[in-house]
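Q: Second attempt. The first request was missing the SMILES, so the protein and flavin-adenine dinucleotide are both included now.
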Amino acid sequence: MVIIGGGVVGCSIAYNLARRGQRDVVVLERETVGSGTTSKAAGGIRAQFPTETEIRFSLESLRVLKNFTEEFGVDPGFKQIGYLFLVSDEKALRGFETRIALQKRFGVDVRVITPKDAHAIVPALRVDDLIAAVWGPQDGLAGPAEVTQGFAKRARELGAGIVEGVEVTAIDVAGGKVRGVRTTQGEIASPVVVNAAGPTAARVGRLAGVSVAVFPRRRHIFFTEPFPEL
Ligand SMILES: Cc1cc2nc3c(=O)[nH]c(=O)nc-3n(C[C@H](O)[C@H](O)[C@H](O)COP(=O)(O)OP(=O)(O)OC[C@H]3O[C@@H](n4cnc5c(N)ncnc54)[C@H](O)[C@@H]3O)c2cc1C
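A: Got both inputs this time. The predicted holo structure:
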């Protein structure tokens, strides 16, 4: 079974397949494990999302992160320091209330708090322009590199192959079925190919004639000096 992409998603899929006894799993990564968008993530972990799918994935992630060190032998740097959204107008607050109702249906610990309460949590905050804040105390931070390396390490230990520096250049399809992939270093026959190519998933999908609704958007990362108050 070929998995295209060695980001957190590809490595997690490889681990979970190997754990369930799937043999001959190989991840093909054109660069190095975790070097794609995974390496750019801030590390925020939260169940405060607007859709059922995201909320359920996040709750499962929180469960995995709590036991990560025991399960993977790698400390993911998981810190449940909470996640705070700042709300400065009524319209935004109404939007949060709809999400909160959905999140609570799935047991997420999330609440609307006053600006004063937000200030008590983060004393460095200026809160005079806020009307409320939304606080999820179970949320927090984890290290994207650590998590990805944990999945990759355990996947390898369970027999999966993870190969770096190999790009998939074509997906062979015959009779409506996937037959394998062609890469910069040769061909691999496989009846199943998993597209875990992150922001380039649409491009990889096109290799098999499949339309994948992934539309990457360029975002920005700003580096600052440390804020002692935080
Ligand atoms: C602990 C953690 C915390 C996070 N926190 C945040 C956060 O605070 N905010 C946020 O916005 N997101 C966060 N994220 C999510 C992150 O930003 C990315 O969305 C996520 O890591 C993407 O993973 P991926 O495996 O789908 O994609 P990628 O990491 O991009 O992996 C895809 C891989 O596919 C490879 N690839 C592509 N095409 C080919 C090909 N043809 N052949 C071979 N290889 C190919 C690429 O080289 C790349 O390495 C977090 C993720 C983690 C793990």
